[in-house]
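[Q] Does anyone have a clean structure-token version of this?
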Amino acid sequence: MSAPLDARLREALARPDDEGPMGRGVRVLLEDAAASGVSDVHLNPSAAGLEVLYRLDGVLQPRARIDPERSERFLGKVKVLAGLLTYRKDIPQDGAIPASESGGRTDVRVSFFPTVQGEKAVLRFFLHGEEKFELDRLGFPAAAVERLRAAAAKPDGVLLLTGPSGSGKTTTIYALLAEIVRPGGVLRHVVTIEDPVEHAVPGITQTQVNPAAGLTFAASLRALLRQDPQVIMVGEIRDRETARVALEAGLTGHLVISTLHTGTAAGVVTRLFEMGAEPHVLTASLSLVLAQRLARRRCPACRSGCEACRGTGYRGRQVFGELLAVDDVLRKAIGEAPSRERLEEIAVARGMSPLRAEAARLVKEGATTEEEVKRVLG
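[A] Here you go.
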């Protein structure tokens, strides 16, 4: 068993060599984080030094601390690797550390933000070649997978996903795209507009927005419609213009897949109305809405705390969600612009299993716990 990260960082930062203590210290952190399977590393400034926290299975966990006298130089080395300005500490900065500098398996997106305690950095990890985006492997019930597969096979319409940040929406979308371009299927022109492009998917054209150059989601989508696309993935619908163009594209022979930030599937419809969607356009274009969450799985080795799960009792995560498939009854209801509560009642009557019911199913099956469901759903 290797020494704790705290001890390895202290040793790396105290012993000079050709690589330099800061370079070696950052490498130790990157390699440990990648091996631990983190999604994010937070470097938080404090009077006691730079606090190192890992986000594992969606939960932040303290991992180490870097002494105050070394904190600034350590962050400076992270900036150098990420291609950022080391002398600017008063502005937000974003960059990336390539896989060649982080152990060869991981790209790391880096974000710096100024605070009154000093600069805070967040490192987000993207593994190479280890994720297989397949609908059947996501963990949804078979009936939900078939509905998602059927929606992805349609030539037109709008398929929307919702949920908080870190709920697995991007993974589900990539699985849908992989389904659409799978070998042996019908060849379709698939283009994405993302912020940022998180994974390269063979067989599709991927674009990254650049607001500074005027390449926003809305501007990209308008231009893309002149490129003869058949399937368009828009990373997020954030404004009225993007919502309008996306819904109209779903009416004119395009399959549109996107995300929207709301709490529930029915809330997506309400939010689109708030963004100015016309009832007749929404009812004619919207085909399916998926609201999803991720809950930590009970550790299969102990279910109470062991070395494998770092004493948490959980290891890995399980997706669950509510799926609102728009049929003629729901289409008629949406056209009357109902409240979210009323639309949820109708959707449940039409067969939608709500988020809490799906979470209760996972608890009953022993996949997760009541405490974890309360953490995720409140």
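[Q] Thanks! Anything notable?
[A] The chain has a mean pLDDT of 92.
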